[in-house]
Every structure is written in structure tokens, then in C-alpha cells.
Protein 1
Amino acid sequence: MSTTLEIPKDLLEPVKSKSKRERRSIPTTAELYQAWLDGAITLPPRPRIPKPPPPSREEQTRQDREWVKNFEKLVDAFAHIPVADSRTCSEIIMEDRNRLERKNQ
């Protein structure tokens, strides 16, 4: 199996330099995985990032109101654009569903 890895330049350049100084080829990812599995390489434990507590009911209400206010601004911003079909999405779906039901009868 093969894959493409994106290695940041600030990481790859020192690896290339060290490989050149030690007259070695750059180790393949598979070699590094195997060394890790064999215990030759250890990784530091990942820092545990605590999950933030859920917002309070008041904060959630504030966030919800802010979201609705922003959505209304967005709707207002697009209200002047003419539409080809004045039906709502629900109306279009219901009409299409009814059309399919009539077709299958």
C-alpha cells in the first residue's frame, strides 16, 4: 500500500540535513512505524486537553438568539435577489412526492 504524506518544510529540512551529515538515507515511514512497534522509538504521551463544559442554559439561549439574528441578517442580504421559483423547499418536495405517488399508482 502506498500513501502520500505532507511533511512540513520546517520538519523535512532538518531531517534531510541530519541524513546527509550521517550519510544515511531518510528512513521510510514504514521503518519508523516498525521501530515504534518494536519499542525502539517511544512517543511522549499526548497532552490531555480537557473538554470544555457545556454552556449554561442562559449562554446557550444567548448563542441561539445570536445565531438567529445572524441568519436573519443573511436572509435580508439575499432578499433582493429574484428567484425563479417562489415555492418553498417544503412545497417543492411535497409536490414532487405527490407526483411520484401518482406515477406509481
Note: Helices lie at 9-21, 29-38, 57-78, 89-104.
Protein 2
Amino acid sequence: MCRYAYSGPYKIHYACFDCRKAFKQPSPEDWMKLQGLGFALTQLWHAASYPPGRREELEVQFGVTLNELESRYRDAVFNCPECKQPMANLGRDFKAPRKSDARAWKAIQKVYRLGHAFQTCGCDGPGFIPASEHEYQDYLKLMHSIYLNHAKNYESNSGTNSDDRKAAATYWMSRVAAIESAMETQI
């Protein structure tokens, strides 16, 4: 098993780019416990291994669906304790640079705006943070290639539902557009 438990000491790092500080917040599981929904979340997650239809029965019993519970956490806003502005969810593996390292904070903000966060299981370490403008440009080129490849794969994949393929291809093309926009602003 990876080093991260589903709940407990491995909290999620949120960052305030204005204050250049990071703060730990509860994981989805622990946050649901604080909301009085921890048992429902656990039961609905485990329902995937139950016989067909059991999850739907549990959702009726609890009066909430698994998707609703998960979106409650995703939609929750964690504000910076200092400036009270919303913070960015950078994941469990984020390691904040020193407050005085404005260049590193700017690099992190740039990659975050492109959808990069440090959401791994912990096996691969904290992830990539560009240390220079050249590394950032290389990162943009690499991600552009990867996202474009994903979009092409979904457009040509005949084994998936047509609507799902279109939605996935559209999603990846939106990521490609964001990368292209970032590349244009760098010129």
C-alpha cells in the first residue's frame, strides 16, 4: 500500500499565492466526518464491492449520493487564514517553497493554473516544479504533447461510448488550449 492512508495524518496542502504560504486542510474523508457524513461516505465507497444495486439502496437510505458527497468536498472553499482569500488545493505531496522565494511561488502558480497539482499516492515524490523559465517552457511543450495525444486517442477510440469519447476529447482539447495560451503569453 502507498504511504498515504485514506484519512489521518496525511492532510491536503492548500496554498495562498498572495501570501505565499501553505496550510494543511482535512482530507475528504476527515472533512466528511466533521460534517457528520463520514459513515455515509465510507459505506458508499465500499459499496462498489457489494452486489449490484446495493449502492443505490444505501444512497436512498442515507439521502445522499456518492457523487453529491464528493462534489461537496470539491466545491468547498478553504480560505487563507491570513488574507481570507480562497486557497488552491495543491495535494498531499506539495512542499511549499520559502515565503521569500517569489520566483518559485510564481512557477507553482503557473503550473497550477494549467491544472498541475501534487495529487499522487506518494510513491513518486512531490512532483515537478520548474526552477527556471527554460524548464517551464520545456514543461509546457511536454504537457502540450501529452494532452494532444490523449485528445487524439479519445477521438479515435472506437471501444468507448460515442458521447463519452466526445466529452473526453473535448476535455483534453481544452487542456491543450490552456497550454497553447500559456505558451503564447510566454513569447
Note: The longest strand covers residues 12-16.
